[in-house]
Amino acid sequence: MTVHREIxxxxxxxNMPPTKFGRLAVRxxxxxxxxxxxxxxxxxxxxxxxxxxxxxxxxxxxxxxEPGQ
Length: 69
Prior knowledge:
Layout: H1 3-14, H2 18-26, H3 31-36, H4 43-65
Helix pairs in contact: 1-4
């Protein structure tokens, strides 16, 4: 799965606005729009985006496993 598809899937699942995602992930509120318009991120950008997605997934799983929720 491409990083762009992973981002779009994450945005749909979390209802996070694309600009917020960009600011949190790579300090670029336009990154999602740019990807949608055909921008090809470099390897360092891809690594940063994937790291953010992995961290968010881990945090979500931790929240689901908290007792008393």
